[in-house]
From TrEMBL:
One of its GO terms (molecular function) is sequence-specific DNA binding. The lineage of its organism: Bacteria, Pseudomonadati, Spirochaetota, Spirochaetia, Leptospirales. GO terms for biological process: regulation of DNA-templated transcription. It holds the Pfam family HTH_8. This is Transcriptional regulator.
Amino acid sequence: MSKKNDLNSTWIANFGESKKLKEQWLEASKTKLPLVIVGDSGVGKTFWIERSIAQRAGEQKYQLVKVDYSLKPDFFENTMRKLDAHKLTFLCWENLSLGSESEIRNWMQWWKEKKYLLDESLYIYWEIQSGELKKIESLPYLSDFFDQMKSFAFQLLPLHRRQSDITFFVLSFLENANKDLKKSVSSMDVHFHHYFTKRNFKHNLHELRDFIYSLVAFSSKKQIKLKQVPIHLFENHDSIIPVRTGISLSDYEKAIISENLKLVNGNRTKAAKLLGISERNLYRKIKEFQLEEEA
Protein backbone atom coordinates (compact mmCIF):
# COMPACT_ATOMS: atom_id res chain seq x y z
CA MET A 1 0.00 0.00 0.00
CA SER A 2 1.44 3.33 -1.02
CA LYS A 3 1.64 6.33 1.23
CA LYS A 4 0.77 8.52 -1.75
CA ASN A 5 -2.39 6.68 -2.73
CA ASP A 6 -4.14 6.01 0.56
CA LEU A 7 -4.58 7.61 3.95
CA ASN A 8 -5.63 4.43 5.67
CA SER A 9 -6.72 0.99 4.53
CA THR A 10 -9.50 0.77 7.11
CA TRP A 11 -12.31 3.30 7.22
CA ILE A 12 -11.76 4.70 10.70
CA ALA A 13 -14.84 6.42 12.09
CA ASN A 14 -15.51 4.48 15.25
CA PHE A 15 -16.97 6.88 17.78
CA GLY A 16 -19.41 9.70 18.36
CA GLU A 17 -19.90 12.26 15.62
CA SER A 18 -17.58 10.61 13.10
CA LYS A 19 -19.37 7.24 13.44
CA LYS A 20 -22.78 8.88 12.99
CA LEU A 21 -21.53 10.82 9.97
CA LYS A 22 -20.16 7.66 8.38
CA GLU A 23 -23.50 5.89 8.82
CA GLN A 24 -25.36 8.83 7.27
CA TRP A 25 -22.88 8.97 4.37
CA LEU A 26 -23.37 5.28 3.65
CA GLU A 27 -27.15 5.66 3.75
CA ALA A 28 -26.99 8.62 1.35
CA SER A 29 -24.74 6.57 -0.93
CA LYS A 30 -27.62 4.13 -1.41
CA THR A 31 -29.62 6.89 -3.13
CA LYS A 32 -29.27 8.82 -6.40
CA LEU A 33 -28.70 12.09 -4.55
CA PRO A 34 -25.67 14.24 -5.47
CA LEU A 35 -23.35 14.34 -2.46
CA VAL A 36 -21.45 17.40 -1.28
CA ILE A 37 -18.54 16.83 1.09
CA VAL A 38 -16.92 19.74 2.97
CA GLY A 39 -13.84 19.70 5.18
CA ASP A 40 -10.38 21.02 5.99
CA SER A 41 -7.26 19.88 4.17
CA GLY A 42 -6.35 16.30 4.97
CA VAL A 43 -9.57 15.13 6.67
CA GLY A 44 -10.15 12.39 4.09
CA LYS A 45 -12.74 13.89 1.71
CA THR A 46 -11.42 11.99 -1.32
CA PHE A 47 -11.27 8.77 0.69
CA TRP A 48 -14.93 9.09 1.71
CA ILE A 49 -15.93 9.72 -1.91
CA GLU A 50 -13.97 6.62 -2.99
CA ARG A 51 -15.84 4.51 -0.43
CA SER A 52 -19.17 5.88 -1.61
CA ILE A 53 -18.27 5.11 -5.23
CA ALA A 54 -17.25 1.57 -4.27
CA GLN A 55 -20.63 1.03 -2.62
CA ARG A 56 -22.59 2.47 -5.54
CA ALA A 57 -20.61 0.68 -8.24
CA GLY A 58 -20.40 -2.73 -6.64
CA GLU A 59 -18.90 -5.12 -9.22
CA GLN A 60 -19.75 -2.92 -12.21
CA LYS A 61 -17.12 -1.21 -14.32
CA TYR A 62 -17.30 2.56 -14.27
CA GLN A 63 -15.59 5.76 -15.34
CA LEU A 64 -14.57 8.50 -12.96
CA VAL A 65 -14.73 12.02 -14.43
CA LYS A 66 -12.93 14.60 -12.29
CA VAL A 67 -13.47 18.28 -12.98
CA ASP A 68 -10.87 20.17 -10.93
CA TYR A 69 -10.58 23.84 -11.81
CA SER A 70 -7.21 24.13 -10.08
CA LEU A 71 -5.74 21.80 -12.73
CA LYS A 72 -7.16 23.38 -15.90
CA PRO A 73 -9.70 20.59 -16.47
CA ASP A 74 -11.62 19.82 -19.63
CA PHE A 75 -14.05 22.50 -20.64
CA PHE A 76 -17.74 21.97 -20.05
CA GLU A 77 -18.40 20.69 -23.58
CA ASN A 78 -15.62 18.09 -23.42
CA THR A 79 -16.90 16.87 -20.09
CA MET A 80 -20.39 16.55 -21.51
CA ARG A 81 -19.11 14.20 -24.20
CA LYS A 82 -17.63 11.95 -21.52
CA LEU A 83 -20.90 11.95 -19.59
CA ASP A 84 -22.81 10.87 -22.70
CA ALA A 85 -20.78 7.68 -23.02
CA HIS A 86 -23.70 5.57 -21.72
CA LYS A 87 -21.72 3.83 -19.03
CA LEU A 88 -21.74 4.02 -15.25
CA THR A 89 -20.13 7.39 -14.50
CA PHE A 90 -19.12 9.23 -11.35
CA LEU A 91 -18.69 12.98 -11.81
CA CYS A 92 -16.60 14.76 -9.17
CA TRP A 93 -16.29 18.54 -8.98
CA GLU A 94 -13.37 20.15 -7.14
CA ASN A 95 -12.38 23.81 -6.76
CA LEU A 96 -15.45 25.10 -8.57
CA SER A 97 -14.76 28.51 -7.04
CA LEU A 98 -11.75 28.78 -9.39
CA GLY A 99 -13.88 28.23 -12.49
CA SER A 100 -15.09 31.09 -14.67
CA GLU A 101 -18.61 32.41 -14.29
CA SER A 102 -19.55 31.07 -17.71
CA GLU A 103 -18.34 27.57 -16.79
CA ILE A 104 -20.30 27.59 -13.54
CA ARG A 105 -23.43 28.87 -15.24
CA ASN A 106 -23.12 26.07 -17.78
CA TRP A 107 -23.05 23.57 -14.95
CA MET A 108 -25.99 25.26 -13.27
CA GLN A 109 -28.07 25.06 -16.44
CA TRP A 110 -27.05 21.44 -16.96
CA TRP A 111 -28.03 20.59 -13.38
CA LYS A 112 -31.35 22.40 -13.72
CA GLU A 113 -32.21 20.25 -16.72
CA LYS A 114 -30.69 17.03 -15.41
CA LYS A 115 -31.59 16.84 -11.71
CA TYR A 116 -35.01 15.31 -12.20
CA LEU A 117 -33.77 12.97 -14.93
CA LEU A 118 -30.82 11.33 -13.18
CA ASP A 119 -30.70 7.65 -14.11
CA GLU A 120 -28.74 4.76 -12.67
CA SER A 121 -25.67 5.55 -14.78
CA LEU A 122 -24.63 8.95 -13.36
CA TYR A 123 -23.69 10.00 -9.83
CA ILE A 124 -22.42 13.42 -8.75
CA TYR A 125 -20.00 14.53 -6.00
CA TRP A 126 -18.82 18.00 -5.06
CA GLU A 127 -15.69 18.22 -2.90
CA ILE A 128 -15.23 21.53 -1.07
CA GLN A 129 -12.39 22.79 1.11
CA SER A 130 -13.68 24.52 4.25
CA GLY A 131 -11.76 27.67 3.31
CA GLU A 132 -13.47 27.68 -0.07
CA LEU A 133 -16.91 28.28 1.44
CA LYS A 134 -16.35 32.02 1.93
CA LYS A 135 -15.50 32.48 -1.75
CA ILE A 136 -18.49 30.39 -2.78
CA GLU A 137 -20.75 32.58 -0.66
CA SER A 138 -19.21 35.75 -2.12
CA LEU A 139 -19.97 34.78 -5.73
CA PRO A 140 -23.74 35.11 -6.32
CA TYR A 141 -23.86 32.63 -9.22
CA LEU A 142 -21.86 29.99 -7.31
CA SER A 143 -23.68 30.70 -4.06
CA ASP A 144 -26.98 29.99 -5.84
CA PHE A 145 -25.59 26.69 -7.10
CA PHE A 146 -24.40 25.73 -3.62
CA ASP A 147 -27.80 26.61 -2.14
CA GLN A 148 -29.36 24.07 -4.48
CA MET A 149 -26.91 21.39 -3.36
CA LYS A 150 -26.31 22.04 0.34
CA SER A 151 -29.21 19.87 1.46
CA PHE A 152 -26.96 16.97 0.49
CA ALA A 153 -23.82 18.35 2.21
CA PHE A 154 -21.69 16.50 4.77
CA GLN A 155 -19.13 18.33 6.93
CA LEU A 156 -16.15 16.13 7.86
CA LEU A 157 -14.64 16.70 11.28
CA PRO A 158 -11.06 17.94 11.77
CA LEU A 159 -8.72 15.57 13.57
CA HIS A 160 -8.84 17.46 16.89
CA ARG A 161 -12.56 16.65 17.08
CA ARG A 162 -11.92 12.94 16.53
CA GLN A 163 -9.90 12.21 19.67
CA SER A 164 -11.24 8.66 20.04
CA ASP A 165 -10.15 7.78 16.49
CA ILE A 166 -6.57 9.05 16.77
CA THR A 167 -5.13 5.84 18.25
CA PHE A 168 -6.61 3.81 15.40
CA PHE A 169 -5.17 6.19 12.79
CA VAL A 170 -1.74 6.00 14.45
CA LEU A 171 -1.79 2.19 14.42
CA SER A 172 -2.91 2.12 10.77
CA PHE A 173 -0.23 4.61 9.67
CA LEU A 174 2.40 2.75 11.69
CA GLU A 175 1.52 -0.49 9.90
CA ASN A 176 1.63 1.20 6.48
CA ALA A 177 4.92 2.95 7.27
CA ASN A 178 6.55 -0.34 8.25
CA LYS A 179 5.43 -1.91 4.97
CA ASP A 180 6.46 1.01 2.77
CA LEU A 181 9.77 1.68 4.49
CA LYS A 182 10.58 -1.99 5.18
CA LYS A 183 10.94 -1.36 8.90
CA SER A 184 9.74 -3.33 11.91
CA VAL A 185 8.67 -0.75 14.50
CA SER A 186 6.16 -2.59 16.67
CA SER A 187 4.90 0.15 18.98
CA MET A 188 5.12 3.66 20.38
CA ASP A 189 5.36 4.33 24.10
CA VAL A 190 2.22 5.28 26.04
CA HIS A 191 3.29 8.91 26.45
CA PHE A 192 2.56 9.56 22.79
CA HIS A 193 -1.19 9.44 23.47
CA HIS A 194 -1.16 12.79 25.27
CA TYR A 195 1.09 14.25 22.59
CA PHE A 196 -1.22 13.23 19.75
CA THR A 197 -4.37 14.48 21.47
CA LYS A 198 -2.82 17.84 22.36
CA ARG A 199 -0.94 18.61 19.16
CA ASN A 200 -2.75 20.73 16.59
CA PHE A 201 -2.36 18.88 13.29
CA LYS A 202 -3.16 21.71 10.91
CA HIS A 203 -3.29 19.39 7.90
CA ASN A 204 -5.12 16.69 9.84
CA LEU A 205 -4.60 13.10 8.66
CA HIS A 206 -1.98 14.04 6.06
CA GLU A 207 0.17 15.68 8.73
CA LEU A 208 -0.34 12.86 11.25
CA ARG A 209 0.55 10.28 8.60
CA ASP A 210 3.69 12.16 7.54
CA PHE A 211 4.69 12.53 11.20
CA ILE A 212 4.39 8.76 11.77
CA TYR A 213 6.35 8.03 8.60
CA SER A 214 9.12 10.37 9.76
CA LEU A 215 9.35 8.68 13.16
CA VAL A 216 9.50 5.22 11.60
CA ALA A 217 12.05 6.26 8.97
CA PHE A 218 14.52 7.51 11.57
CA SER A 219 13.91 4.81 14.18
CA SER A 220 16.37 1.97 14.64
CA LYS A 221 14.49 0.28 17.50
CA LYS A 222 11.32 -1.78 17.85
CA GLN A 223 9.61 0.87 19.98
CA ILE A 224 9.62 4.63 19.44
CA LYS A 225 9.93 6.62 22.66
CA LEU A 226 8.63 10.15 23.07
CA LYS A 227 11.89 11.32 24.64
CA GLN A 228 13.68 10.48 21.39
CA VAL A 229 11.52 12.84 19.31
CA PRO A 230 13.44 15.99 18.16
CA ILE A 231 12.37 19.18 19.91
CA HIS A 232 11.18 20.89 16.71
CA LEU A 233 8.42 18.29 16.34
CA PHE A 234 6.87 19.53 19.57
CA GLU A 235 6.55 23.09 18.31
CA ASN A 236 2.96 24.01 17.53
CA HIS A 237 2.83 27.42 15.89
CA ASP A 238 -0.82 27.07 14.90
CA SER A 239 -2.28 26.33 18.32
CA ILE A 240 -4.84 28.79 19.65
CA ILE A 241 -4.88 29.70 23.32
CA PRO A 242 -8.42 30.46 24.51
CA VAL A 243 -8.65 33.74 26.41
CA ARG A 244 -11.21 34.13 29.16
CA THR A 245 -11.78 37.13 31.37
CA GLY A 246 -11.61 36.96 35.14
CA ILE A 247 -8.59 34.65 35.21
CA SER A 248 -5.29 35.82 36.64
CA LEU A 249 -2.09 35.94 34.61
CA SER A 250 -0.43 33.54 37.04
CA ASP A 251 -3.19 30.96 36.46
CA TYR A 252 -2.60 31.20 32.72
CA GLU A 253 1.14 30.87 33.23
CA LYS A 254 0.66 27.80 35.42
CA ALA A 255 -1.67 26.18 32.86
CA ILE A 256 0.73 26.83 29.96
CA ILE A 257 3.72 25.42 31.84
CA SER A 258 1.68 22.41 32.97
CA GLU A 259 0.47 21.58 29.45
CA ASN A 260 3.97 21.83 27.98
CA LEU A 261 5.38 19.57 30.67
CA LYS A 262 2.69 17.00 29.92
CA LEU A 263 3.37 17.29 26.20
CA VAL A 264 7.03 16.33 26.61
CA ASN A 265 6.36 13.81 29.39
CA GLY A 266 8.06 15.93 32.02
CA ASN A 267 11.27 16.52 30.09
CA ARG A 268 12.37 19.86 31.53
CA THR A 269 14.99 20.57 28.87
CA LYS A 270 12.45 20.26 26.07
CA ALA A 271 9.74 22.09 28.03
CA ALA A 272 12.09 25.01 28.70
CA LYS A 273 12.95 25.26 24.98
CA LEU A 274 9.28 25.18 24.00
CA LEU A 275 8.48 27.89 26.54
CA GLY A 276 11.46 30.03 25.55
CA ILE A 277 12.88 30.20 29.07
CA SER A 278 15.93 28.78 30.81
CA GLU A 279 15.79 25.46 32.64
CA ARG A 280 16.66 27.32 35.82
CA ASN A 281 13.70 29.64 35.38
CA LEU A 282 11.45 26.68 34.59
CA TYR A 283 12.60 24.86 37.73
CA ARG A 284 11.68 27.94 39.78
CA LYS A 285 8.24 28.11 38.14
CA ILE A 286 7.64 24.40 38.78
CA LYS A 287 8.34 25.00 42.47
CA GLU A 288 6.21 28.15 42.55
CA PHE A 289 3.19 26.47 40.95
CA GLN A 290 3.72 23.10 42.67
CA LEU A 291 4.03 21.17 39.41
CA GLU A 292 6.64 18.69 40.64
CA GLU A 293 4.45 15.67 39.83
CA GLU A 294 4.34 16.69 36.17
CA ALA A 295 8.08 17.23 35.88
